[in-house]
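Students often ask what a 'structure token' actually looks like in practice. Rather than answer in the abstract, let us consider Lipoprotein, a protein of 268 residues. Its sequence is given first.
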Amino acid sequence: MKNAAFKLAGVTLALSLAWGAQADALRIAADPVPHAEILNFIKKQDPKLDLQVVELTSGVNANELLANGDVDANYFQHLPYLKDQEKALGKTFAVAATVHIEPLGIYSHKHKDFKTLPDGATVAVPNNATNLSRSLFLLQSQGLIKLNAKFTDPATTLATPKDIVDNPKKLKILEIESPQIPRSLDDVDLAVINGNYALEAGLSPAKDALGLEKAEHNPYANILVTTPQLENDPRIKELAKDLASPQVAEFIRQHYNGSVIPVATPQS
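Now compare that with the structural description of the same chain:
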């Protein structure tokens, strides 16, 4: 009976310890590529930081998860998108770290350059306000369209197709859900694709894009986001430190070959 009692007590203690460990886990919602891959690298580098990586699927709003307390932080978005989400959700979040840039790119399965683009060509772009505007600025930088002169700063002024004042090739802009755009490549002339979705689709932004955002002065760096209540949590501070480390920057540089660019500067 004593042995049975000790065994029962041991099982109870083990379950309690397991529950405690689970409660202390830092739950981070992240896109599979590259965000979850970077977090899983950190899990190996800093095992004392108990990370629980929650990979996002299409249609799941990671900011709603964070606002509802289902996760402790998320890592998938840039600041202009976050600001738009704060307005939409009526919530205030906190930026804990600025990590990397995924240059937005223009891709095609039908054309090798913009010179062969026919009049009336179709262009798939993201349908959310910030990335739609970002796409139009990218198309403008490639000389394909011209926006109203009042649109000077892509980080603070959101353009829409109605703001195009010059469209020499009469491009038809098709607004599509960002994760679905890679699947549209066979059906459109051009597709403007976020870096993470391009990587998931087997595209190499640095090699395959006909046009690519510049990394310099790019306002769309991806960030670690949490709530004001958790902003000073030691686990969040530790993860922010890890994400800004030279080791993570080197992992990004080696693993993504210029398709994902760390914000941290190279070590001499």
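One point worth highlighting: Residues 1-23 have pLDDT under 50 and may be disordered. Ask yourself how you might have guessed this from the sequence alone, and why that guess would often be unreliable.
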